[in-house]
Amino acid sequence: MKLTFAHMGHLYIPIGALFRHLGLEVVLPPPSSKRTLSLGCQNSPEFACLPLKVNVGNYIEAIERGADTIVMAGGIGPCRFGFYGEVEREILQGLGYEFTMFIIDPPQGKIGPLLKQLGSLVGPVKPRDVIYALRLCWEKVTGIDRLNRLAVKVRPREVTRGETTRTMTDILAEVDRAETIDATRAAVNRGLSRLAGIPQRQDGPPPPRVGLVGEIYVVLEPFVNLEVETRLGELGCEVERSIYLSDWIRRHVIGDIFRILRPDPLLSLARPYLGHFVGGHGLDTVAHTVEYARRGFDGVIQVMPFTCMPEIVAESILPRVSKELGIPVMTLVFDEHSSDVGVITRLEAFTDLIMQRRVRLGEIGECAVTSV
């Protein structure tokens, strides 16, 4: 068995470690690229949203590398993600590829079917090995999130543009190579020290803070969002994502398995604007935008794939949130036709807008705008 899965941000690091420590051979698709997108678009329905197309391209490239087993998450609710697995299976079978696909659906409190499905995937494994593999996976997930949270603070303050991004590339490669929990912790701690040691500007006003909200795949996958987080940082903005993988796992995986379904107090912030679940992360997008406004952020950017229904619902509500709470909001919609130039132009304009707004509010002087 040669197992593969689609890319989504840095997910390949912890998930690859999990399966390798369960004795499986992992065949990663190459990093998502224009070829990946081209393959996906050629072989997917035109009306399908961008994540499905990139997933299909990932799977084709992984099969070309020898993969014969695909692991895919399932879903429930109004979002079309729940159909991805079956649609992708039919597309790949129609292309003549031979493979086995495991679609792992949300457990909804029923751990038995989940364990049975995982057992058929990994075969007989000692419980202690499963526990260790899960702990290693979690150590990498939380470590990578800690690194990303620090990187977004350092990047807008770095003296040498691009140094944070280059350093993070090296650090993530080291975390990926770590084969034990202790080695992973050591790699993460070294990475945190390296990021903290990057020379930073000490003068001038604090950088503007921008919240990044939207559909999880587009938020987390740099190829798909055209490096929005990095570009904003290098434009001088401190970015805070609404979604980090460790937070999502705590809420939607661990909480779902053990039915730890406490109401999320954050979602109550959306109630004046959106009072019910609309699928995907639509409710979260509204709630986090309200949260960022209340925390004094300078702006919010929503990212979403074209035709994403939950985010379209959120997008229709955000202008009201923006007007009532006085926070600039911009929506970026991505499909296979999106270009770097268009995104960069809009990000530059948005950054100029929020800096001029800070001048009008008396938070910074006019000279600070030209120095960013």
Question: In a nutshell, what does this entry contain?
Answer:
This protein folds into three domains: 2-123, Rossmann fold; 126-203; 205-371, Rossmann fold (3-Layer(aba) Sandwich). The protein has 16 helices and eight strands. It has helices spanning 12-21, 34-42, 50-64, 81-94, 111-122, 127-154, 163-177, 181-196, 216-220, 222-225, 228-234, 245-257, 282-294, 309-325, 340-360, 366-371; strands spanning 2-4, 25-26, 69-73, 100-104, 209-214, 238-241, 299-305, 329-334.
What number of structural domains do the residues give?
3
Tell me the series of helices and strands, N- to C-terminal: EHEHHEHEHHHHEHHHEHHEHEHH
Tell me the strand order in the biggest sheet: 2-1-3-4
Enumerate the spans where pLDDT stays under 50 for 5 or more consecutive residues. Answer: none
Radius of gyration: 21 Å
CATH fold descriptor of the largest domain: Rossmann fold
* CATH architecture field of the largest domain: 3-Layer(aba) Sandwich
Structural class per helix/strand content?
alpha/beta
Measured distance between first and last alpha carbons: 52 Å
Question: What portion of residues belong to β-strands?
Answer: 5-15%
Mean pLDDT: 91
Largest sheet: 4 strands, parallel
Describe what you observe in this structure.
- The protein has about 375 residues and is α/β, with parallel strands linked by helices.
- It has three domains: about 1-125, Rossmann fold (3-Layer(aba) Sandwich), CATH 3.40.50; about 125-205; about 205-370, Rossmann fold, CATH 3.40.50.
- It has 16 helices and eight strands.
- It has helices at about 10-20, 35-40, 50-65, 80-95, 110-120, 125-155, 165-175, 180-195, 215-220, 220-225, 230-235, 245-255, 280-295, 310-325, 340-360, 365-370, and strands spanning about 1-5, 25, 70-75, 100-105, 210-215, 240, 300-305, 330-335.
- The chain has a four-stranded parallel sheet, sandwiched between helices. It has a four-stranded parallel sheet with strand order 6-5-7-8, sandwiched between helices.
- Helix 4 (about 80-95) links the parallel strand 3 and strand 4.
- The radius of gyration is 21 Å and the shape is globular.
- It starts with a strand and ends with a helix.
- The model has no long low-confidence stretch (mean pLDDT about 90).
